[in-house]
Structure formats: structure tokens, C-alpha cells
Design goal:
single chain; alpha+beta; four-stranded antiparallel β-sheet; two-stranded antiparallel sheet; 23% helix; globular; VWF_type-D; VWFD domain-containing protein
């Protein structure tokens, strides 16, 4: 199907013309978004998108089950594939990581995200964070923790609750590192902007409107409304019609 690829902050976004959007943080998180026209017309591991979370564990044979493994194994692409088996609790398997994981992940239930707690239940995100942080014991310790917290921040962002949670000590994104000396092209934004006019997208139109995504954003490539006469062929937008916003 026709698609369009663009970068939004830390994410790589794939837009399709049928209303399917993939968002990947180039690490361990991927989000699948569907347009409302798909409601109630899909099935599988991600549920049926009917607004009712209680029937998401619907098997291939259309029966609703309570066991996650029974549900997951029913969607194997081939009967020759082995069944998935329940894995040991990560913090039980790696008890030396449990205290660290609980302490780090407590940011989700802390005052940092306080204004989001009433809108997005934090406890399931906290537990997922602890599980992931305990499980990452072969390197990339902070990667799993940071990805888990970013997932909660993104859920808040979907409801227009923008949380600036990263610090130089907690999952930093050093966007200013990419700036040439004396320039200020790159900036970190916790929620970014959805779809801007840029040299790569002069119309400012995207296939689907989305919430802004966190990450580093290059404002040197932003086309300011009063100066839209850029020479797209010679790529001289920066010198002819750009001004630094900060």
C-alpha cells in the first residue's frame, strides 16, 4: 500500500494511505495506530479496537479467554510454531536488579507525572517498567527503563498532557550536541509538533494528523510563514528563508 516515511522527534513514522500508522523509536518501542474507520473491524494480538478492553483476549476461534498464553498461542501464524510458555518473573530471576528497578521506575508514580495520574492509570505502566528494568540484565540497562517511562509519557501526551520528565541524570537526550558552533538548530521538545512546514515538507501537510512526538527537532529547517520562497532545487532554505526561533 502507498506509504510515507518521516522522522518526528525520536520516532520514525510510517504513514499509509489506508489509515494505518506505525511509530518506532528506533529502539524497543513500536506503536500501531489505526483510523476510526477500523473500529470493530480488526482482530489479533492488539485486540479488536471496539472500545471495550474486556474482550481483547479474543482467540482466533472468536472465543474470549482469560489466559494470556491461550490467547496469544491461538494467533500463531502456523501450527508448526511452538507454543509460547510463561516466563519466570524477571525480578525473581534477577533479584539483584529489583530494588534499582523499583526506585528508578517510581518516577511514573511520582509528582513528576502527577497531572497525568487521574487520566492515565500509572500502576500498570509502573509494573511494566519494573519488569522490563529487571529483565534487561545483559547490557542496555537504562534503555529498557527509559523506554518504559517514555511509553507512559506518550500515553499522557495522547491526552494533551505534556510532561517534561527527562533530566541530565534521567534518560537525557542531548539534542544541543548536534548544533554547529554558534548555531541553535536542534532543540529537545517533550511533545514536539505534529506536522510542520519544512524544506522536506513545504506544504506542511501529512497523510494523518498526529500528536507531536518527543525528541530533537530541527528548527533551522522550519519554513517560517512570512518567507516561503525557498529554492527547493538548490536546497538553500536555510540561508534564504530561515531564522532561528530561539
Amino acid at each position: 500500500m502507498p506509504f510515507q516515511i518521516r522522522s518526528m522527534g525520536i520516532y520514525l513514522v510510517v504513514d499509509t494511505t489506508v489509515g494505518l500508522i506505525l511509530m518506532w523509536d528506533k529502539k524497543t518501542s513500536i506503536f500501531i495506530k489505526l483510523s476510526p474507520s477500523f473500529q470493530g473491524h480488526v482482530c489479533g494480538l492488539c485486540g479488536n479496537y471496539d472500545g471495550n478492553g474486556n474482550n481483547d483476549f479474543t482467540t482466533r476461534s472468536q472465543s474470549v479467554v482469560g489466559n494470556v498464553l491461550e490467547f496469544a498461542n491461538s494467533w500463531k501464524v502456523s501450527s508448526s510454531c511452538p507454543n509460547a510458555n510463561r516466563t519466570q518473573d524477571p525480578c525473581t530471576a534477577n533479584p539483584y536488579r529489583k530494588a534499582w528497578a523499583q526506585k528508578q521506575c517510581s518516577i511514573i508514580t511520582s509528582e513528576v507525572f502527577a497531572k497525568c495520574h487521574s487520566q492515565v492509570e500509572p500502576n500498570e505502566y509502573y509494573q511494566a517498567c519494573v519488569d522490563d528494568a529487571c529483565a534487561c540484565d545483559t547490557g542496555g540497562d537504562c534503555e529498557c527503563f527509559c523506554t518504559a517511562v517514555a511509553a507512559y509519557a506518550q500515553a499522557c501526551n495522547e491526552l494533551d498532557i505534556c510532561i517534561s520528565w527527562r533530566t541530565p541524570a534521567i534518560c537525557p537526550l542531548f539534542c544541543d550536541y548536534y548544533n554547529p558552533q554558534g548555531e541553535c538548530e536542534w532543540h529537545y521538545k517533550p511533545c514536539g509538533a505534529p506536522c510542520m512546514k519544512t524544506c522536506n515538507n513545504p506544504s506542511g501537510r501529512c497523510l494523518h494528523e498526529m500528536r507531536g512526538l518527543e525528541g530533537k527537532h530541527n528548527y533551522a529547517y522550519l519554513i517560517l510563514p512570512e518567507r516561503l520562497k525557498c529554492n527547493m532545487v538548490n536546497k538553500i532554505c536555510i540561508t534564504q528563508c530561515m531564522t532561528c526561533l530561539h
